[in-house]
Design a protein that fits this description.
Structural class: mainly alpha
Strand content: under 5%
Helix content: 55-70%
Low-confidence stretches: none
Number of strands: 0
Order of helices and strands: HHHHH
Distance between the termini: 61 Å
């Protein structure tokens, strides 16, 4: 085998891809390839959680600081919704995350932490007060 996985993952990945394309299956690093494939899925879920957390934090700020609403918050909310919609369209299996209670709890806690840090407020709901359908609805902006 060429470059060890632990030394240079990019060079290793290129070598593994070449081996796969050449049909040299006995030479591939099966265990690390499997790990990398699993990591792709984890990365997509982390990206979705990150975007959802930013979206939820901005919806919280929108609701709890109506006097500070502005075009910047509107743009951020729209951009996150758009990016989430694209991610869900490109990777439909991610939709399961939206109904996973553990994923929702972690994402909500992250959003509350972000909103609290950015607003100085500490009085946000313990659980998300909106359904995921509402959160992703283009027209939805919570009232104070």
């Amino acid at each position: 085998m060429g470059t060890p996985y632990e030394k240079d993952v990019v060079a290793w990945a290129m070598e593994q891809a070449a081996l796969l394309r050449a049909g040299k299956l006995s030479a591939i690093d099966i265990e690390h390839i499997a790990e990398e494939i699993e990591d792709v899925g984890k990365s997509e879920k982390r990206e979705l959680a990150s975007r959802m957390s930013v979206l939820l934090a901005h919806l919280l700020k929108w609701q709890h600081q109506p006097e500070r609403r502005g075009s910047s918050w509107t743009r951020t909310i729209k951009a996150q919704r758009s990016s989430i919609a694209v991610a869900l369209k490109q990777t439909p299996s991610l939709k399961a995350s939206l109904s996973d209670p553990d994923w929702l709890t972690v994402t909500w806690e992250d959003a509350v932490a972000k909103a609290g840090e950015e607003t100085g407020l500490g009085t946000f709901p313990e659980d998300c007060p909106w359904s995921m359908d509402q959160v992703l609805l283009v027209e939805f902006f919570p009232e104070a």
